[in-house]
Write a structure and sequence with these properties.
Chain lengths: 293, 390
């Protein structure tokens, strides 16, 4: 029974990593940049939902809607102000800028909301569901998280595969210059990618804070890094890869804690990552792309 | 391109302007009545602490607590008058040293060290070198005072809490089987954990589960709680800060596990956690030097609430006590504000190693020559959302 319990914890944690990783991988796959501010957009999403539901007394769905709206706009603004002017710059400059944006968001949150942690009220109410005569307690938020994760992944696969904007995104991902020559507006496409990625970050933020209910300006930082790891694990740039990577990372983390050692769990997670990358350098589901010189 | 750049710059300016605003407000608060005081007529008291950054809650509490004490002493008249200045160190050792240097330029005569342990270890090395006496409100690591004759602490040291926790669990017969969940990338938690294990063994307490987490894995505690539950632990000892502890309480509740929980002074603050369901903390026991709900602390608590809009924590009380301990020592030594930092240092070492101090955080406190304080922390239980002394 305890095995099932650990599996549920692992999948729950993994689904949150997966939703964050989907945002990372979207932006990387299309704009070819690592958006290290992604984790902090998650934190902003959490605070927005917190403010709406606690301070303004809005219902949960309105809080989530506000979080998504604010994060989408924020993501587009970050892209427009911080990344677009550097489109032609070396990728290292963009990376440093992303880290800068991450600090800017964290410290802005510190100014606005202060440093003391806040307790988040879960947006998913209800009592835990008791299975097998109470030996396994399944929290409703776990179900919602896993379901949202699946729905989001399916929607993203359909969107990138079957819509005009999705096709444009894949074209930009393959070759920016050629896409432009074909009449695709590269800037709009990248902006759109950031909008979707940041909207996902808001959902991830709300679910993260619902499952693990404390909220601080640094809340998004660690899950952001773990999710980045998950994205690399699954093959960065690949949407199903991010999903698989996220779930696996969560499950490995919990199992390592439960069956090997709580002290070594992170070391084990990253050891697995290293082994996977040694065997498959592009991640589990990553595609090998030859770089032009 | 140019337009975007200018917009970016404008945005940055706006943010810096906002940041400036915050800073100015703080300065205006701390400046208070004594900003006009001239050199040589007041004792210049300085300290560093995290006024911004992730640990800002501690630094600001200490600064505010010290400020209340200074204002009270100055308003009462008398020979001893203080001027207080705090520098922001963001809980970073290098910034603490540069903060210390600017305090020296300002003419600091007595130091309040630093608020958190790591920076305080750095500034303690400087105060030792420069012969400036320092009394830290809250840096609790043993390395802070080690080998320095002029560095003193107002808080009790980390290992002492492990011993006291084991003693009170055994004295009150709180449990037979104990689980510990601690943070193994944190010196504070590790220090308490190690001494607790040693002392618990000596007292014949049985530790059935000993699990850890780190900064990177401080979200999911189901594994640790399941381990404690399956091994039948009836008390879970949490030598950690209140933020992860609040998650542990929530997750234990969700899985229907209801042991006794026992925390240390890092747990202080859990009730002030915004939007926290305080019923989860019902029956939680913790060690603290300061009980804000205690009758004897009412005056200070009311003043603090009025001035800063929140209930003071132990950091505020420790810093408040520091200023009063200085007052008592300066009076006893017959010190005058025109003395140099070095002269004062000698006198203060003499006074602190011989005096007994009664403050908000404990009465009958004395200091050893190693700078460590001896005072008894209070064991409190949370009942109906307030601390009740056990």
């Amino acid at each position: 029974m305890s095995f099932l319990n650990h599996l549920i914890s692992g999948i729950s944690l993994g689904s949150i990593y997966a939703i964050i990783a989907l945002g990372y991988t979207m932006v990387y796959g299309i704009a070819k940049m690592l958006n290290f501010a992604h984790g902090d957009v998650i934190m902003v999403g959490g605070y927005m939902c917190f403010c709406a539901t606690i301070y303004l007394g809005w219902p949960a769905w309105a809080g989530i809607a506000l979080a998504i709206a604010v994060c989408t706009v924020l993501g587009m603004a970050i892209e427009r102000l911080a990344y677009k002017p550097l489109r032609m710059a070396p990728s290292l400059a963009v990376l440093i800028t992303a880290i800068g944006v991450s600090y800017l968001l964290q410290n802005a949150a510190l100014l606005i909301w202060g440093s003391s942690p806040k307790m988040f009220t879960s947006v998913v109410g209800g009592q835990p569901i008791a299975l097998f005569g109470g030996q396994i307690m399944l929290a409703p938020v776990t179900l919602v998280t896993v379901l949202s994760c699946l729905v989001i992944m399916a929607a993203l696969v359909l969107f990138t595969g079957h819509t005009k904007m999705g096709t444009a995104m894949r074209a930009v991902s393959e070759d920016k210059g050629a896409a432009q020559l074909m009449g695709i507006n590269v800037n709009t496409t990248i902006s759109m990618t950031f909008a979707i990625g940041s909207g996902l970050a808001a959902v991830a933020g709300v679910l993260l804070c619902s499952a693990y209910p404390t909220l601080m300006p640094t809340t998004g930082a660690m899950p952001g890094i773990k999710a980045f790891t998950a994205a690399v694990f699954g093959g960065i740039g690949s949407i199903p890869g991010a999903f698989v990577g996220g779930i696996l990372l969560g499950v490995i983390e919990i199992f390592a804690k439960a069956y090997i050692s709580t002290q070594l769990s992170d070391a084990i997670v990253f050891a697995v990552l290293i082994v996977v990358l040694l065997v498959k350098p592009d991640g589990l589901l990553g595609k090998r792309v030859s770089e032009k010189v | 391109m140019k337009k975007t750049l200018s917009m970016l710059l404008a945005g940055t300016m706006l943010v810096t302007a906002l940041a400036g605003c915050g800073g100015n407000n703080d300065a205006a608060q701390s400046g208070g009545d004594n900003s006009a005081a001239a050199d040589g007529t007041v004792f210049k008291l300085g300290g560093t602490g995290p006024l911004t950054g992730a640990n800002a809650i501690y630094g600001n509490a200490a600064k505010n607590g010290a400020q209340i004490a200074v204002d009270e002493i100055n308003a009462a008249g008398g020979d001893i008058q203080f001027e207080l200045k705090y520098e922001d160190d963001e809980s970073d050792a290098e910034k603490a040293v540069s903060g210390y240097n600017s305090l020296k330029d300002w003419g600091m005569q007595l130091s309040l060290g630093s608020v958190t342990s790591k920076p305080c270890e750095a500034t303690a090395a400087k105060t030792f070198e420069d012969r400036v006496f320092a009394l830290t409100p809250s840096a609790s690591s043993t390395a802070t005072t080690e080998g320095k004759d002029n560095m003193f602490q107002m808080c009790f040291i980390d290992p002492a809490q492990g011993v006291l926790a084991a003693e009170s669990i055994s004295a009150h017969k709180l449990a037979t089987k104990i689980a510990i969940i601690w943070k193994n990338d944190d010196v504070y938690s590790t220090g308490i954990h190690d001494t607790f294990i040693k002392e618990a063994k000596a007292k014949g307490l049985e530790i059935v589960s000993d699990t850890t987490f780190t900064e990177a894995s401080a979200t999911d505690f189901n594994v640790q709680l399941n381990d404690a539950k399956s091994k039948g632990a009836d008390l879970v000892f949490l030598p950690i800060y209140y933020q992860p502890a609040s998650l542990i309480l929530t997750q234990a509740n969700a899985m229907g596990y209801a042991p006794k929980f026992f925390g240390v002074d890092g747990m202080d603050g859990i009730l002030t956690l915004e939007n926290f369901d305080t019923s989860l903390a019902e029956g939680l026991m913790l060690l603290t030097p300061f009980n804000a709900d205690d009758e004897k602390n009412k005056g200070f608590v009311e003043q603090y609430v009025e001035q800063f809009g929140e209930t003071p924590n132990q950091f505020a009380a420790d810093a408040y006590d520091c200023v009063y301990a200085y007052k008592q020592a300066l009076e006893a030594a017959g010190a005058t504000p025109d003395m140099s930092a070095e002269e004062l240092c000698g006198k203060m070492i003499e006074q602190f190693t011989s005096m007994t101090f009664d403050g908000l955080t404990g009465s009958g406190a004395t200091w050893g020559t190693n700078g460590q304080i001896s005072k008894d922390p209070i064991v409190v239980t949370i009942q109906n959302g307030v601390y009740v002394t056990m």
